[in-house]
Every structure is written in structure tokens, then in C-alpha cells.
Amino acid sequence: MAGLVRRRARRQRVLRWVIVTVLSIVFLLPLVALLEFTTRGPGGTLTWDTWRELFDFQQLSETYPVLWTGMKASFWLVLLSVALTLVLLVPTVVWVRLRLPRLRRLVEFVCLLPLTIPAIVLVVGLAPVYAWVVYFVGGSSLTLTFAYTILALPFAYRAIDTGLSAIDVRTLAEAARSLGAGWATVMWRVVLPNIRSAVLSAAFLTVALVLGEFTIASLLNRDNVQVAINQLGKSSATISFAVSLAALVLAFVLLFLLSFAGGKRRRSRRERTTS
Description:
Number of domains: 2
CATH superfamily of the largest domain: MetI-like
CATH topology of the largest domain: MetI-like fold
Strand content: under 5%
Largest sheet: none
Number of helices: 13
Order of helices and strands: HHHHHHHHHHHHH
Distance between the termini: 35 Å
Number of strands: 0
């Protein structure tokens, strides 16, 4: 019986490694092809001129102003979208858990709703709203912050809600309040340190979403890095593919850090339980 269990466990390990290997090849092969294309010089020689040009920001801004404008817009969109998403979600989700638990399902439904609506449909609904935004604020690409915050709600809400589910936030808040702490202190010094990894997860997911979004920015005639990549693909495929590869690698690194943060949270929780 013990030998049968060992053989079954061995087969399962082999099957897992086979699946991981196949998926790794499927994922890495297009990236390797992109890298080979961007480093291919005249006559099939190896050259890194494209990558040197990509990281020489002064030359990049002069040679590809569209790409430089899109990169700057995406940089500020990342910062603003992450800040607005966390400022809206963290206090709301914590307050609902503490004071309005009956509204939890309603808040969850509202936050997850953008996940069920295609981006093209969102654009149809957002276009009249953005007509007023342009009238009052202007037509800057930074106004996409509002649309990206809506798109990020499902992912950020799930990450923050999972982090709050791992702690007894009501007991922590009541203990802090009994010691004379105000609600701002409870939020900043009690709740946030205990859901730091969940907040980082929400931020990383928002960054990955903003860096990869194309449909809304294109249809609303705004600039971001994906729109710039699409425009450059018609004139300079090499630099366009290099930027695409860099964006994919950055998103992969962010998701890897996200999984690392989640594993660290689970390990710390197990250590607290055993102690």
C-alpha cells in the first residue's frame, strides 16, 4: 500500500513538471522570438542598438516623440490610478466590514461589475461622460485615470477583501478605539500594517492593467504606451516590439512579486498560528 502511494505521488510530481515545462515553453517562446527580432541586425547579425535606443531617453524623445509621450502618460496614469483606487477602496471596504456589514454584498457586486462589461461597451458609456470631463478639465490623457480606476475595481477589491478576511479587523479596530485611537489612527496604524501585502497586491494588479490597456485609450483618442506601440508598429516595428517585450516583462515581474507577497503573507499567518 505504501509503495502504491509513493508511485502515485511520483507520477503526480512528474505530471506537474511536464505541465509546468509545456506552459513555460508556450509562454517563453513568443518572448524569445520577440527578443530575437529586436536584436536582429543587417544580414542576420546580433545587435543591441534598439535596446540602447530604448533606454536612452533623450534620444528616444527626439526620435520617437509619440512613444515618449505615451510612456510619460502611462507613468502618470499608473501613479494616479493606483492612488485613486486605493484611496477609494481601502477605507470603503474597511468601513463596510466594521459598520455596514449588510452592504458588503452590494459593494462587492458594484466593484465586480466592470469585470462583466466588455471594454468597448464601457467606452460607449464613458464617451458622453468624458465629453463633460473635457469641457471642465481638458482633454489630457491623465483623465483616463477615472476609467482605469473603474477597470481596476474588481481586481483591487478582491485583493483587499482577501487581505481583510485573513485578520480580525473588527477586534483590532475595537481594541484600538478602546485605547483612545481615532478612526484615522485605526486605519493608518492598525488596519493598514496588517493588510500591507493585500494593498501591494491591489497596486501591482492596477499597474499591470494600466500598462496593458489599449481599447479605451484608443477609442477615446488619448495617449498611452499601448497606443504609441500600435502607432509605431506601422513605421518602426523593431522599437515597437522592444517596448512590447519590455512591458510584458515588467507585468510578469509585477505578478511574480505579487505571488511572492502572497506567499510571505501565508507563511507569516502560519507562524502566528503555531506560536
